[in-house]
Amino acid sequence: MIRLKGITKFYSTGFVKTFVLRNIDLEVHQGEFLTVMGPSGAGKSTLLYILGMLDTPSSGEYHFLDRPVHRMTERQLSDLHKNHIGFVFQSYHLIDDLTVYENLETPLLYKKVKASERKGRVCDMLDRFHIVAKKDLFPNQLSGGQQQKVAVARAVITNPSLILADEPTGNLNTAEGTEIMELFKKLNAEGTTIIQVTHSEKNAAYGKRIINLLDGWIVD
To answer: Which CATH number fits the domain that encloses residue 33?
Structure first.
């Protein structure tokens, strides 16, 4: 599903290059649950953003579903991201002035899904994630755990091939974090590929494979 070869990311300041990722080779198969770990500044989030096509590498090759991402235009990248990838962030990234229902509906509007199908999909997500009673509330009326459930539901509503999760339980208490990780476990069991970045050994254990980053390198 994913094949990275020699992925490097650096920022230039004058004559100085600051490397964030160095020569990353990685393969991820359909249906995997992969965990990326490492200390702060190791390059974890940068790797996730490159995988999610929200950032571009300085060099190297990235193939997604056998398509050469590293050669694509911005529009092609946007289309591929929109149709295949769901993102879950630590800080939820919900739209504050939209209700739960409207937040869930937004990705479907971008994909120009017909009104009747949008309604059906949103209602299915509300039911599946046990948030029907919250559908008319705004994000600031929800707990952190409830907001993250909405964020996961929003990521899943377009039926993505891949979910990328960047410290998805970082702002949650233990019970809320466990609930979110159990949701990911269920989604993965249903066939969704998941790549998560986490500092938590407990959350890492939900994955089927762990890679460790240190100073931009993959280490054993």
So the answer is: 3.40.50.300
d(CA 181, CA 159): 18
| Tens place of pLDDT per residue across the chain (220 aa) | 999 999 999 999 888 999 999 999 999 999 999 999 999 999 999 999 999 999 999 999 999 999 999 999 999 999 899 889 999 988 889 999 999 999 999 999 988 899 999 999 999 999 999 999 999 999 999 999 999 999 999 999 999 999 999 999 988 899 999 999 999 999 999 999 999 999 999 999 999 999 999 999 999 7
What's the number of domains the chain is made of? 1
If DSSP codes are grouped into helix, strand and coil, which group holds residue 26? strand
User: What is the domain range of residue 128?
Assistant: 2-219
